[in-house]
Amino acid sequence: MGIKRRHFLVFMGASAGSVALGSLASPRKSFSMPFSGSRSSLGTNGLSFEPVKLPIPLDINNLTQNKQIESYSTYQVQDDVVLPPGFTYDVIAAWGDRVGDSRFGYNNDYLSFVETAPNEGYLTINFEYISGKTWMETYPQVIGQSLPFAAVASALTGSEGEIDAFALPNNALKEQIQEIAKEAMIDVGMGVISLRRNANGKWERTYDNRDRRITGISGLEDGRYLKSTGPSVAIFNKSNKKGYDDGLGSRIIGTFGNCAGGTSPWGTVFSAEENFQDLVPEPVMADGSSLPPTAKPFNIGSIRGQGNPFGLAGNKYGWMVEVDPANPNDYGTKHTWLGRYRHEAVGFLARPGKKLAVYSGCDRRGGHLYKFVSNGTVRRVTDKVNSRLLENGMLYGAKFNANGTGQWIPLAPSTAIDPIMPSTVGGGMVKFPNPDRNAGGVVKVTSDAEAAAIKSKFRTLGDLYEGTEAQKQGAILIDAHYAGNAAGITTTARPEDTIVAKDGTLYIAFTSGTPGGDGGPDTSIFQGPNGEVPYEFGWIVSLKEDGLDPGAMTFRWQSFAMGGEPAAGGMGFSNPDNIEIDNNDNLWVVTDMSTSTHNKPVPSRTKDNLKQGQPISQKELLGIFGNNSIWFVPTSGSGAGEAYPFGIGPTECECTGPFFSEDEETLFLAVQHPGERNGIRKGMESETRKYAMKTTDGEDFIQTREIPIGSNWPGKRRNDPPKPAVIAVRRLGSQPIPGLW
């Protein structure tokens, strides 16, 4: 079975007239999969592990239609990390464990292991957010103390659980809210822990004096402020701001929303502040200053708006944070040239004698892909002085063309206004900086005429922002997403991870093409394998700079692998998220289906169970994919672009942050928010549900699936509280993990 044509077609919906751009990487190991269906041939024809069984039939199973129906008519979901035979995992640390003078946080995400010697090093962990319901349910049991949840909820009855705590006088209610918000802030941010591998191949914590936490309130009480560089520092230090001033100048309290990230070639770790808008206001005034804390009230129901009780300035969050794990006094630097938006991941293209390129995506519906290019050049790729290159340069946004080419547009004051037209994006809505610049903030635009009116009123990005040229540049970077919409940067399908292979290829995981409240993707670019718009299930795309030059202003791109059901042209996964690249430039991909969709019943594919009824939406179909999972995707050889399931996460979780040790005998993995929807699995409760499935050839059948209700992972004992945790996956026998022999 050769490479399926859909894998290498330009990203135009895979029509017969599309132009194939060819293989993405130089040939390395040849690869062939045993398509006879013989399990015994696994390992002899290239693949070094037996793929785990998902609830959905895959092309790689090579089963007849009847065998697929027989094999997949029943399925048991497990509340555990499921791995191929011959693999195991060890829990490294879990929520509540001691880290320095604090604790291991909640919802661990990106992981980075920087080795300092053979078999030892520093593991840096992101802690993204707290899952309000489950966090409140399990906090007393895990942390061993109580918080005034009930008292605050009772006090806020009738206000939908929401209040502007910042405006409250110093009374008992404010103190209770601050107590809850403080604990929630301690459980987000970053952490550094020291590890050593023992003689049995297991990684153990050594509790080095460099172990530390950088929390959402670092600096508030302990003086451990974060630093900042770049043009937006002028906005932080500016007097007479149009908006809110926290009085701290360039000092920054904490970091939160720490989702994906990246490890620089010089050994520092970058942490992406993603959904900061859940804690502080995102829109800003025309001079780049913050809206007041009252714009994001505290909410006890979901534990959101935690920045409100402490008066945090919203414009100081949404950045990329750099930390040196080996420096115990480093509590993070926010590099403002990298832009402020809902950051996901960071990829580095660093070559001696060339400028440094740093890639990142804005994970929202309609978010952009960005590239920072330094003014200076890289001398030695591994030299920590390269961090200084992030202090001067330019941020660009990607404009994708439907023919597989693209350009980088600078986010500079001189850049012309060329607004995205609502008619070109899914959902028909785009958000722009408010044309009433005195009011600040953003507006929703739903007609091309409204967008054109913005262009007629403002000539350049500099016209949208106030101050000196330097201050305007700082304000544009603070308002990067909305400035990008005004400059005509392509709206995309939730760009989550960006990672650069050794040959210079940038891989991008676009998680979902469904539009939403923030906007939607360009419908001429983001289509399904059969031209579907919108397309929920996601894509992995490759991008190469022209001339492989980090400073190039043009590029070429193509679809590499596509989510969705095999019967409809997909690879069998849905909503790709983080990507790791092994030493042979093959991809390891984890998925990020929304918790509310996990194993959601799909008794029929039409509404009202009527055969002639309207088909259900792709979002409603997500339940067929089961739990979030881990995939191996070769980039060369005859299996390039195929996808092989390597693992499945516990109930209601997301597996995040895959990161290989240098010898590739360990895959570090973060298991985020187990039991997020139903909390503690009580009495090993489970439920049987029905699913309208399809074979790989499109034949309908019904699957009966047993689903655990809630989670007891990682303890796995009856009624154990679910806890986010970091694990080390290894092959029994201390052999390398990667998927090709």
Explain the layout of strands and helices.
Elements (H helix, E strand, L loop, with lengths): L64 H8 L1 E3 L10 E8 L3 E2 L2 E2 L4 E10 L2 E8 L4 H12 L5 H7 L6 E2 L8 H15 L2 E9 L5 E3 L6 E4 L11 E3 L3 H5 L20 E6 L5 E5 L24 E2 L20 E4 L9 E3 L7 E7 L5 E8 L6 E9 L15 E8 L4 E6 L19 E4 L8 E4 L2 H10 L3 H4 L4 H10 L1 H8 L7 E6 L5 E5 L28 E7 L8 E9 L13 E6 L5 E5 L26 H4 L7 E5 L10 E5 L5 E7 L5 E7 L13 E9 L5 E9 L16 E7 L10
Parallel strand pairs: 1-35, 11-16
Antiparallel strand pairs: 2-36, 3-4, 5-6, 6-8, 7-14, 8-9, 8-10, 12-13, 13-15, 15-16, 17-18, 18-19, 19-20, 20-21, 21-27, 22-23, 24-25, 25-26, 26-27, 28-29, 29-30, 30-31, 32-33, 33-36, 34-35
Fold and architecture overview:
There is one protein chain. The protein is of the alpha+beta class and 741 residues long. The chain has one domain (5-537, 554-731). The protein has ten helices and 36 strands. The strands form nine sheets. It has a nine-stranded antiparallel beta sheet, with helices on one face. Strands 5, 6, 8, 9 and 10 form a five-stranded antiparallel beta sheet that branches. The protein has a five-stranded mixed beta sheet with strand order 11-16-15-13-12, with no helix packed on it. Helix 3 packs across helix 4. The two termini are 19 Å apart. The model is unreliable at 1-45 (pLDDT under 50).
